[in-house]
Every structure is written in C-alpha cells, then in structure tokens.
Amino acid sequence: MSEKNPVRAVADAIAGAVHDGPAVAEGPEEGVPGKPGPVSPPVAEPTKPVGPLPPKADQSGPETVSPTGQPTGAEQARVAQSGAYLTTAQGTRVHDSDHSLKAGPRGPVLLQDHHLREKLMHFDHERIPERVVHARGSAAHGVFRSYGTAQGVTKAAFLGPDVETPVFVRFSTVLGSRGSADTVRDTRGFATKFYTEEGVFDLVGNNIPVFFIQDAIKFPDVIHAGKPHPDREIPQAQSAHDTFWDFVSLHTEATHHTLWNMSDRGIPRSYRMMEGFGVHTFRLVNAEGVTTLVKFHWKPKLGVHSLVWEEAQIIAGVDPDFHRRDLFDAIEAGAFPQWELGIQTFPDTDDQMFEGIDLLDSTKIVPEELAPVQPLGLLTLNKNPSNFFAEVEQVAFHTGHLVPGIDATDDPLLAGRNFSYLDTQISRLGGPNFPQLPINRTHAPVNDMQRDGMHQTAVHRGAAPYKPNSLDGGCPFFAGADAGAFIEVPVEVPAGRKVREAPASYSDHYSQARLFWLSMSPVEREHIIAAYTFELGKCYEQAVKERTLAVLANVDGELCAQVAAGLGLPVPDPSEPLADVSPSPALSQVGRTWPLDGRVIGIVTDGAGDLAGVADLREAVLDAGMVPLVVAPTGGVLGGGDSPVTVQRTFATARSVEFDALVFAGSPAAGADAYGARDAKAGHPRPVTTDPRVLALLIEAYRHGKALAGWGGARALFEAVGVSADDSGVVVADDSQGVRPVMELLAAHRVWERFPSGV
Fold it and tell me: Which InterPro entries match (predicted)?
C-alpha cells in the first residue's frame, strides 16, 4: 500500500478520493471509517440508469469457487446483482414497484399481479431461524500465514512454512438474540474457518479457555438456564437472573468458567483485543505418525483489554453495535486486526494428564507457566463482508471439520459438539446442502457422492453415486495417507463397562477457580467482586444468593466476604479446604504495554480556538496509526482556508465510551442546543459558559481511566470538574505539540492508578 502505516495510507487514499475523485462528492469523510457506500450520493434522486456500484475498498465476498470446490475464476461481481434496471426474480424488467395492479386507481387489487405476489412472498420468507447460541455476531475475511513451526507436530499442510490460507472469522456472544447488544457480560465466540488445500478446518473456540460443563449432555441445561426465563422472556442477553445462578450454584463444575465470566474477560473492549481459545485438547499427528496433544490459543497483537462495567452499560444504550462497528471501522481504516495462533503441547500419554491436570476436562486450563504457548502463524483480518446475511449469518462452523494432521480426543464435551453442530445447520440453513453456500464452500475439490436435497446448487454428472461402481469408471476412488486422506489416529480405546459417570479427576471444581482469582491484579479482583455483587443482586430468590456464596467460600474467603457484604448476607464457611495453587501471571490483563494501532482519539473543540493545532494533532494521530475523531458543537467543517477541520461527532452525538483518549483544544463554549429540552445531556435550562456535555465527556472519561490531555485553556476546564493537571494520565500543555505524549499512555490501555483497590 505504502511505507506509511496502514491507517495513514488508507486515510490519505480516502482523502484523495474525496478531493480528487470525479465520482465522489466532497464531504466529511476525511479518512474516517463509516462511509456507507463507495461514492457520495447527490441530493436529488438519480434518474440516469447506471449499473450496480462496486463494493467499498474494505469489503470482499467469499472467493468464487463452485459448489464442488473448483476455482471458477469469476469476478465476485458475477454472483452479485447485475443490470441497471429493476427486474423480477426471473429477469423481466419492471416499470413500477410502488403501486399494486388495481382495477382503477381506487379499485381492488387484482389477483394477477405477479410482481406483488413475488415481492411479498420473498419478503415473508427472507428470515431464517437464528442460531440457538451465538446468534449475535460479526465477522470478517482475512488470511492466515503459517510460520512453519508446527511441522514437527503436525502434517497439516496449511501449517507448513509460509503457507497462506484464506480465512473467515466470526465473533459472537453466546446468550443474546440477534438483536441484543454487543457489550453484555457474556462469553464470546471466536470461530475461524480455514479454507485449506486439504479441505475446510474449523477452529470453533471462545474468548474464555474453559466451559461451564464437562459433558455435552449438559449443553441444553446450561443454555436453558442462561437464556431468558421462559415465562417472561426476560432478561435478554445476560446472566444476571435466578435461573442462571440457580444452575451454576448447584452445578459447581461451572465455577471456574463463571469466575472468568465475572472478570473483565466477560466484557471485552473490542473483538480486536480479545484472546481466543480452542478450549478442548486436540491430537496432532506428524508425517511420521507421532502424536502430540495440544490446546490452541489466539493471542491478539493489541493485547487483551476490556471495558469497565459502567462503560458497557452506557454503550449498550448509546451504541449496541459497538463491537461490530469497531471491527468494521478498524478494517476500513487500515488498522487490520491481528492474532498469533499458538499451541500448548503435551505428551500423548495413556492417561492424557499433564502436571496433574486432566487434559480431557474442558473446565480446566494448563497455565502457560507450565506449558508455554508456541506461535504457529499470524492471522490478519483485512476485508469486511460485502453482504452480512450471505456471509456472517449463513456461515456454518463445525468442530468436526478437521484436516489431515489434526484429530479429536475423547473429551466428552467435544464429542457432543461434533454430534450437535450438523443438526443446528440443517435446522437453520434448510437442509444438508449448507456446505454449498458460497461462504461455506471448500477450496478443495469435492466428490462426495451426496445427491439431491433442498437447495442443491451443484449439477452433478454420472450415473453411479455409490461405491463400488464401474459405470462411472470406479470414480471416485479411496485415497490413502500418501494421497492426503484424513485417517483417524488409531489410538487404543480403554475397555470398560458402560457407565454414566465421570473420571475422579473431574470432581475438582474449585482449585482452578482459585488459581484464576489469585492471578488477578487488585483492580481486576475489584471488578470481579462488583460483577458477582451486581449479578446476584439481580436475583430474586435468597436461597440462590446464599448457595452461590457457599460456592465462593470454596474459592477464596476475601472474594466471598466482599460479595456477601455487598448483598447484606452472612459469610459462609468453606465446605472443603482451599486449594494450594500458584498464580499464573499470564492470566492478568494488567501490567504490560501494547501497540496503539486503531485506537480512537477524540479531539474536542468549538471552532473558536486553535484550529491549526487541531489539524496538526489530527495528522499526528493518523501518523501514529490511530483514528482521530473531531468533536464540535455542530457538524460540518470548521474554519476555512487551506486547512479546514472536518467534524465527525457533535456534542449531541458524542459519548466518552467511543474514545480511548480525549484531547481538549481549549474550553469549548456551549453549543446552541445546550439546553435540556433539546438535549437532556446538557442538563441545564439556561445558557452556560462551558457546554455541559463536554464536562460530561471529561468526567466519564476520567472515571473510566481514560488518558486525557488539553491545551489553550483546558486547564481551567479540567479544574472545573476536579481534575488536576498533576493527576495520573492527564497531560496539560501550551500547544498541540505538547499534548502528544497522551498517545503513549494508551499502550497500557487505561490509567490503572485511578482505580484504588480495597482487596
């Protein structure tokens, strides 16, 4: 693209298109993501026929392969709508789509109106069942480049040296419906579809490395408990209710996952700053047939970072699409999200244990201090979907989609997932041919002998879809290992009687929950205490609260005591000795620094101050690989001459939660709409000197640990709300050059010193 950072290069490209491109009208784009289409529209409705516009530069559809995995070489436009004129589904041009066919202007609608019938028929059937879990999600296209470091443990071709594999990655929440908010406290899905030369490999993971349950037979129970109550269908997309806590307090194997969910991991700052885990233990096999047990990890290059709870609550109201927007905008801006794929490796022993940890128990982790994560390759998301339904909604993942070199283990939870995923795709996508949908199509040749069924789009040939056959020349033939066949590892299966039991090692429900708690920093522990107190405070039944406190007593006495104090309940004694465990520093999000790519800086001004300084700071933010958004009393363009400043947010539309840091160019005067009847956030019935909404931005950002800076009168603004220039994470300078150190503060994500701890 250029030797400049991608954000700067994309901004320059967009700005060039804005000012030089003949098809694009000038407007407020200025390199800021969010433009709905590739060109800006005229004020009047266009009347000259033109063909469909191309997608935006940041968008891509699935690669064009046939339903049987053959590259077609076709441009993606060949599978999109075509032609300049409106037609029926059969291609017949339509001259009017605003009026039904009637017997006179006021007469009855005629039954012969085939266009009305077709239009309503399709509309009535354009929704499909949403996912039972992970319904709320977002996704992007990208590429995975292998380092080649996995060759010693797996023969999987896509993990060979410098192999690049197309991917499609979907992020999601578990409990909420499609229309729920992004920032609810919940587990997040992190599902990756690798379109490898050996077939599709789906790594279907989460942002939490453990599950609530050890056996898939409990899946319906935990989801029924977490979903809204069946009588009232509330609450939506959250676990703060009786049925959830009733279940997990009785089903104590959920304790470890619940603690992760009550931590900051339950409310990520961004999908881009979210860790991913394969959860289960998988078995890898190399070219010599040697096997290794592994756990998969996705490590975000930007580090792991979360929202504070108040931010999450505000965002759910003012921008429920926050995570989705953040992902799309970052890619459009050129701040491509990246993760390293890594594995923890363990000897494939008969007992499948490691350092006393049962590797088949999905409620357990192996601390990275015992088994370091070894990097295998780099995932980069670089294209947004061009059609959300066709790609994000119709993508179908399955833990059983494996390739040679990667095999399943006897984890009972994984076994159930391998059974269940096909059922849900048939229900959602209308039949067994869902792999033929463009987003699901493998990039490897398909000759599966499957025929017919609903939504069959392949046109198969031949007379003998069975084996053995001679009529089709014996085709298709079986492949051996030398021809790349997937052959299950011939592991010894332990003999025994049929039982509905679990191994004794599965009965430890508290030691790893305690390990997680002890690994947290003081501020992270405070957030966990607050989360438990809030969630249990939403429960109605006293018995559920008391039972959960009894569970927490077996994790840590201080945790239990602090939550009990918040609930006004007595502190129970533990029912078993507290586990003696060593903390795992790798589990904490606090204490390290990370790249600044794609962070959002709000620059607040009123147009009467140092606009040259605002323009200068904006350029510096772009050069640092971040996204600047100018906030002013009104939209439009501030100033004139050679360096006008375009406004992206107004005092009415901005909220502090959108920004990673705020910089104030002076003390902005009140906007014309700064009164309660127009904007309740203004909060004053009479004119004021400083806009109250600016004060609210400042107060919220300070309370949430955001970095703050200002010049040209900003000191007085800060002092007006009790913020000192000497406070941690506050930079006050004489000019725009002097406030640039505020950007460096973002490497730690937040100003953690502002969060005093009582534990």
Answer: Catalase, Catalase_AS, Catalase_clade2, Catalase_clade2_helical, Catalase_core, Catalase_haem_BS, Catalase_immune_responsive, Catalase_large_C
